[in-house]
Amino acid sequence: MNNSRRQLFKHMALAGGLSALSSPLLAAVNQSSTATLKGNIRHSVSRWTYGDLSIEELCKLVKALGFSAIDLVGPQDWPVLKRFGIDSSMCNGAELNLTDGWCDTAFHAQLIPRYIKHIDLVADAGYTNLICFSGNKRGMRLDIGLANAVTGLKQILPHAQERGVVLQMELFNSKVDHPDYMADNSAWGIALCKALGSEHFKLLYDIYHMQINEGDVIRTIRDNHQYFGHYHTAGVPGRHEIDDSQELNYRAIAKAIYATGFKGYLAQEFIPTPPSMDGKITSLQQAIAICDV
């Protein structure tokens, strides 16, 4: 067994013991390697993209790979994260869905109490970030949707500020994955940030989605990083690995993010293509290595 594999097994043991892992995962980890991360980028991975693993297995894996955060985890799994010393880097569960969101006043009566409650849950758990969504336009003008979002979000932002929680609205593409989504461009999201004028409201800048809808990723980050509180990755086209099988230069993007002084998380949200867990783990390792600038 080479030194990198010994190190990986040591990490897995510290994370809770190899015996607790399923045999397929253990076999996959046995073929993996790990290296010390530089510490300039705070790495995370989206829970849903590694849904083949239990939350316990994913916690052990991220610890073994040298980072300590998982994105898009709700309250039901927070106790497991805490047991393994893993941060819930982007909390979810307050939203109704991805289409019924803050741009439409028809949903405010449901959204406001849900978010007030969830802000308390996030704060009480010691976490910071809570995701939210604009929802779909349904024929609504962009300026009306913006005004509606301001009206609704202003009713929960004072509570978020009081509890130290940051609301993060994700930007989606409407060209491929989320037709009719209102916050499908950085300009609309930035206008919302400016209208709200709060450090407790930021944008989740999804690099995959914004490459599809508008491109110009690095300049957008350099010029507007003060409005971006979180980043997601995935390869374009396809939403798979972020290697040279797709068009984005993620190492250059990660360098640009780091150069802005960003202290938040960069979360991998690609769908791994290998059929085996061994291959999926390798995909995650490679993505972390690409972004670890």
TrEMBL record:
Pfam families: AP_endonuc_2. Keywords: Isomerase, Signal. Coiled coil: none annotated. Residues 1-27 form the signal peptide. Residues 109-271 form the Xylose isomerase-like TIM barrel domain. This is TIM barrel protein. It comes from Bowmanella yangjiangensis.
